Amino acid sequence: MTLACIVSIFPSAGISSPSSDIGYQGTHILTHGALEDLARAFEKKYGLKVFVKGGGCADGIAVVVKGEHEMGGLCCPLAPEKARKLNLVQHKVAVDIKAVMLHSKNPLGNLTLKQVSDIHNGKITNWKQVGGQDKPIALVFRDHCRDMEEPVRKVLGINGPVAKKAIVVKTDKEVVEYVEKFPGAIGIAPRVFAQEAKVKIVSVDKIAATPENTEKGLYPLKGDLYIITKGQPDGLTKKFMDFVLGEEGQAIIRRNFAKAK
What we know:
Blueprint: H1 3-9, E1 22-26, H2 28-46, E2 50-53, H3 57-65, E3 71-74, H4 80-85, E4 88-103, E5 110-111, H5 113-120, E6 138-142, H6 151-156, E7 167-169, H7 172-181, E8 185-190, H8 191-194, E9 199-204, H9 211-215, E10 222-230, H10 235-245, H11 247-253, E11 258-259
Parallel strand pairs: 1-2, 1-3, 5-9, 6-7, 6-8
Antiparallel strand pairs: 3-10, 4-8, 4-9, 4-10, 4-11
Helix pairs in contact: 10-11
């Protein structure tokens, strides 16, 4: 699907409230993990309201291109040439930590990055191949942003379809719910959602999925999060972006993500 199609078939799910000074819509990861708290802190400090609504990357692109909101959120970056064509500027504001989740009763506590990759690519299909019980692996995979640079696919080297017997879903919520339910399941979801669920988050290459380890470059499964604007931000939008990227904003970001810098 082309970017033009994305923008045309995903209209805005909301327009800035008349009581808001500026508006944002986009990836639920950033919305739930930081934007709601950032908007509250910004209003408390400056008395300025930021309308915040969740959605997906397509929503974030559409509302900014159409001028319905000043800001959109992306968990998968646009290719530079596509961003230039639409006059969109991508501002990195955080780094998402992708958690590898197992069922809470799975005895394993660590997997190597290669093992995680091989599971997703269909080369490993039984838990005993990675030191676990002799039971089949039920891979749960969120397939999205196929025409963008989706970070999990990039890190794991998934260049085509995932393992043949994978359970392919559309949302992170579904990934979490399947892993909670099925003892043989494995899935990857943003840490902000995984840590709220009844799942086991395992280390990768013996490195825990934490902001500290991600910022140090030790934890490998991660993806940059962006706020996009139409051209360079100015006025109140710039004021909010400066707040997000400043010390106070990045402290809020770090509650659930690694800092942008």
